[in-house]
Specification:
44% of the residues lie in helices and 10% in strands. It has 9 helices and 3 strands; from the N terminus they run βαββαααααααα. Strands 1-3-2 form a 3-stranded mixed beta sheet.
Length: 196
């Protein structure tokens, strides 16, 4: 982030956000930021940090995620390699294997996350993370959260795993021509599942 007068800020991003920004190279992007202080060397030195997120929902999830014992800001940024809805689904389903697959998260930390955040992540379930936003504040290829939730409910009723279904939904909605209704989204998810 470069400000007038030559002042430059480094903005730290969750891993899955960095991956999504690959499609926005050369375009202006709007991030929802969180300013926090990070200490080093047992608190002797404190540095200001700025974390960036593509949506307010991702930022709110991050703020909740760091309330877990043992999950600091930097660890949370590295751990968030999956979308907000995928991690929230793993917490809701107590899917410790998926949580342990995240960088910086071992067995004990996964258990702590599942216990601490159980019942607090419902609003993040099935919410597709927004795409990058342009300089005018318009979101680029933003899927409808309601559309993703409706498709997720259908897939869960059909016996699909929440975390896997969420990953398929995110993939389908991030395509160049995303489905416009829940039925088409479910169809596209099964095409993806079948290797299409």
């Amino acid at each position: 982030l470069k400000l007038p007068g030559g002042l430059t800020y480094e903005v730290l991003l969750p891993a899955f956000t960095s991956a999504r920004l690959g499609a926005s190279i050369g375009r202006d992007v709007t991030l929802h930021t969180l300013h926090y202080m990070e200490s080093q060397a047992q608190g002797a030195t404190i540095f200001p940090r700025l974390a960036g997120f593509l949506s307010v929902t991702d930022k709110q999830f991050f703020e909740l995620f760091v309330t877990c014992k043992g999950i600091g800001h930097r660890r949370a940024l590295r751990a968030m390699t999956l979308s907000t809805s995928q991690i929230a689904g793993a917490i809701a389903d107590r899917d410790l294997a998926l949580l342990q697959s995240l960088p910086e998260v071992g067995k004990r930390t996964a258990e702590t996350i599942a216990v601490t955040l159980k019942g607090k992540v419902d609003r993040f379930l099935g919410a597709a993370s927004a795409g990058p936003t342009g300089a005018d504040g318009e979101t680029v290829q933003t899927p409808s959260g309601g559309l993703a939730r409706d498709a997720l409910q259908v897939l869960l009723q059909l016996g699909e795993n929440r975390a896997q279904a969420t990953a398929w939904i995110d993939r389908a909605l991030s395509s160049d021509d995303p489905p416009k209704d829940a039925e088409a989204l479910v169809t596209e998810v099964y095409r993806i599942k079948g290797g299409g």
